[in-house]
Amino acid sequence: MQILLVCNIAPSQQGYGVSPTQFIDLYCERTDPSFWSEPLNALTNASFLIGAWYAWRVVSNAKSKLPWALRALPGLLAAVGICSFLFHTLATLWAAVADQLTILLFGCVFLYAFLYHAVRLPRIPALTVAVLFGAASYYFPRLLPPGLLNQSGGYLPYLLGLLAMTAWLTIRRRMAARQFAGAIMLFCLALFFRTVDQYWCAQFPPGTHFLWHLLNGAVLALLSIALLHEVSRSR
């Protein structure tokens, strides 16, 4: 399972004898199992909630009612922040699973909305691609060496998907292309800070994972708002 690999559970432990309340310590900032042992990592999840609020305002101000997949984006973005907050405070396996699954769900719904409402693929092919992306993203970390890039390698399918969507928007000269390109640059920077968190513990004890939250919150908000505007303009 992706979740177990991300949580640094050895392969021999996967599947059996793993408690949902098992304690997980992955980041520099955490020094003990207490609730507020990761204050920066926990509180910076507010970036996702702020992004969700901005995306909700775009949905609310739309001239016509938007499709369900687009209206769901603000709620899913808020769910990412809430579940990440739970993980960085409770530090348990079930919270890690919730954290990863909300990110995966957001990615699948976003891709479906992009393909169906922006690219105008038929519903079934768009849904099929989104499901296949979800399956590939879920199992991709199993192909990587444990601990590669501080578990950031599991986000490579998301980066590839963003590159493909941005290329399509650029070729079609769509206005959202610039926002998507900007999101890619922010996402690469966010991945960098996520990756180096453990390597910089000695020099900077709080770590750099909180910067992943701040930047990734901006990435998801920027992508959501850009897609909402892109579809709204074409309706």
Protein described:
The chain has 235 residues and is mainly alpha-helical. It has a single domain (2-15, 37-234), classed as Rhopdopsin 7-helix transmembrane proteins (Up-down Bundle). Helix content is 65%, strand content 0%. It is built from nine helices and no strands. It has helices at residues 2-6, 39-43, 46-60, 68-90, 93-118, 123-139, 156-171, 176-195, 209-234. Helix 3 (46-60) runs parallel beside helix 9 (209-234), helix 4 (68-90) packs antiparallel against helix 9 (209-234) and helix 7 (156-171) packs antiparallel against helix 8 (176-195). The longest helix is centred in the middle third of the chain and has 26 residues, at 93-118. 43% of the residues are buried.
Content of β-strand? under 5%
Backbone shape: globular
Q: Which CATH architecture would you pick?
A: Up-down Bundle
Number of strands: 0
Rounded radius of gyration (Å): 18 Å
Helicity level, as a percent range? 55-70%
Largest sheet: none
In CATH's first tier, which class applies? Answer: Mainly Alpha
Arithmetic mean of pLDDT: 91
Number of helices: 9
What is the terminal-to-terminal distance?
Answer: 40 Å
Q: Which topology does CATH recognise?
A: Rhopdopsin 7-helix transmembrane proteins
Question: What's the SSE pattern?
Answer: HHHHHHHHH
Write down the domain tally: 1
Spans of 5+ residues with little confidence (pLDDT < 50)? 1-16
